[in-house]
From TrEMBL:
It comes from the Bacteria. Its main location: membrane. This is Amino acid permease. Keywords: Membrane, Transmembrane, Transmembrane helix, Transport. The chain crosses the membrane at residues 27-47, 53-77, 159-178, 185-208, 234-255, 267-296, 316-343, 364-382, 388-409, 421-442, 448-466. One of its GO terms (cellular component) is membrane. It comes from Stenotrophomonas chelatiphaga. It is a multi-pass membrane protein. The keyword Membrane applies.
Length: 475
């Protein structure tokens, strides 16, 4: 039964000296962290990918992905305030379901965070290269990067995506300086990012043309294989667009660094989710209404492209520049989350214990941040955006499924335990989050499902060869 040994709910927040994080964050930092994570590549770049898969019905894809994420967010809010420790879904699974489930979830979170940061870095690189091209065309300053250094090997002529790697290390450096300092900078950049999306909505909505919504659902609702070999349909797009909504789970990883977790975590998780859903639906409506999805569906910078096609080069420049400046907030939030998952798994002995060392000067886990940066920069240098986004979704869907199950299990096992935030209709919300995520998982491309299976086979090998016998709980 050692595979199902569980952490005690009474001691889940008790940690040994030298392996504790410093409480420096309040709810405004958490909302900014959540919005910074959620509003990013998903809306700036993947709206084009989603429209290419579902046509104008990408609006339905956004609604479905948002509804599933809302159930997951409510589940997270209750569990995070009940167990205010780092590790998010990994920690909840360790307490509610047992060690083997926690390992699979933690291993999936490593996949999620690594690939999200890589995806965002590649998306940021696309905007950065587009900005350099604009500077060259408008100002005659030839500062373009050669294709060999601005794209991975999946692009003909590409070798290594240098901008994606550089921005990854720049953000990692900021995180190592201190949690509160990086969170404050993140809040400022989040405001800029929301202003840019507001500019897009204000300019694109007046150009709305209902003719652009016809045919509304050209590829059908369920996932189906198109003549070009792509799996299309509303649900295929929803499974990819799901990437655009998650990010609130990064807030849960900050539980151990929150001053008043009982109050602030629920505010941060739910507040960021609600705000982002409203913004997303407005941006998606403005995009597909202003221009045919066939025009912007394959663009690396769809929002900026729409602005240029509508004859608003200044607005396009603003969106492009803000994307360059503010998209790193997503990198910051997810690299923050990844380093904290590594940190907790190291503290539990599931990974090498040295990963849980905390810097005495900054109060941050420097070793895990460096390791995270090394891992994701290697991926970002050679990765293809749509493929790694789909695989990142697989890891997230696994974690969100576990959180929905954990909510129900803890309601059953600890019905009288004090809960600062209680999820309404928990017996509906929890199963809806779990079942919705399972359905979205099977809407992902078959190749993605296979890669995810391979990843977890490797993970289980690591668990049985190393983690099971080194786990602190086992000692």
């Amino acid at each position: 039964m050692s595979l199902l040994r569980r952490k005690s709910l009474d001691t889940v927040t008790v940690h040994e000296a030298g392996r504790q994080l410093v409480r420096t964050l309040s709810w405004p930092h958490l909302i900014a962290l959540g919005i910074g994570a959620i509003v990013g590549t998903g809306i700036y770049t993947l709206i084009g990918v989603g429209a290419n898969l579902a046509g104008p019905a990408v609006l339905i894809s956004f609604a479905i992905a948002g509804a599933v994420c809302a159930c997951a967010a409510l589940s997270y809010a209750e569990l995070a305030t009940m167990m205010p420790a780092s590790g998010s879904a990994y920690t909840y699974s360790y307490t509610a379901l047992g060690e083997i489930f926690a390992w699979v979830v933690g291993w999936s979170l490593i996949l999620e965070y690594s690939l999200v940061v890589s995806t965002v870095a590649v998306g940021w690189s696309g905007y950065f290269v587009g900005f350099l091209e604009w500077v060259n065309s408008q100002m005659g300053i030839d500062i373009r990067l050669p294709l060999a250094l601005s794209a991975g090997p999946h692009v003909e002529g590409g070798v290594f995506n240098l901008p994606a790697v550089l921005i990854t290390w720049l953000v990692a450096g900021g995180l190592m300086l201190g949690t509160k300092e990086s969170a404050t900078l993140n809040a400022v950049l989040v405001v800029l990012k929301l202003i840019a999306l507001g500019v897009f909505i204000a300019v694109a909505l007046p150009a709305f043309d209902s003719a652009n919504l016809q045919p509304f659902m050209p590829y059908g609702f369920a996932k189906s294989l198109g003549p070009d070999g792509l799996e299309r349909g509303v649900m295929a797009a929803a499974a990819i667009i799901f990437f655009a909504f998650y990010g609130f789970d990064a807030i849960a990883t900050a539980a151990e660094e929150t001053k008043n977790p009982g109050r602030d975590l629920s505010i941060g998780i739910i507040g960021s989710m609600v705000g982002c859903t409203i913004v997303y639906m407005l941006v998606a409506l403005a995009a597909v209404g202003a221009m045919s999805y066939a025009v912007f569906g394959s663009s690396a910078e769809p929002l900026a492209l729409i602005m240029r096609q509508l004859g608003h080069p200044t607005a396009a420049l603003i969106i492009g520049v803000v994307a360059i400046v503010a998209l790193p907030t997503v990198l910051l939030a997810f690299m923050f989350g990844q380093s904290r998952v590594f940190f907790v798994m190291g503290r539990d002995g599931m990974l090498p214990r040295r990963l849980s060392n905390v810097s005495k000067r900054t109060g941050t886990p420097v070793a895990t941040t460096l390791f995270s940066a090394l891992l994701v920069s290697a991926l970002a240098g050679v990765a293809r955006l749509d493929e790694i986004a789909a695989l990142a979704n697989a890891g997230t869907l696994a974690a969100f499924t576990a959180v929905g199950v954990c909510l129900v299990v803890m309601r059953r096992r600890e019905p009288d335990r004090a809960r600062t935030f209680r999820t309404p209709l928990a017996w509906i919300v929890g199963p809806a989050a779990a079942l919705g995520c399972v359905y979205l998982f099977f809407s992902l491309p078959h190749s993605t499902q296979l890669y995810f299976l391979i990843w977890n086979v490797i993970g289980l090998a690591v668990y049985f060869l190393y983690s099971r016998r080194n786990a602190v709980l086992g000692r």
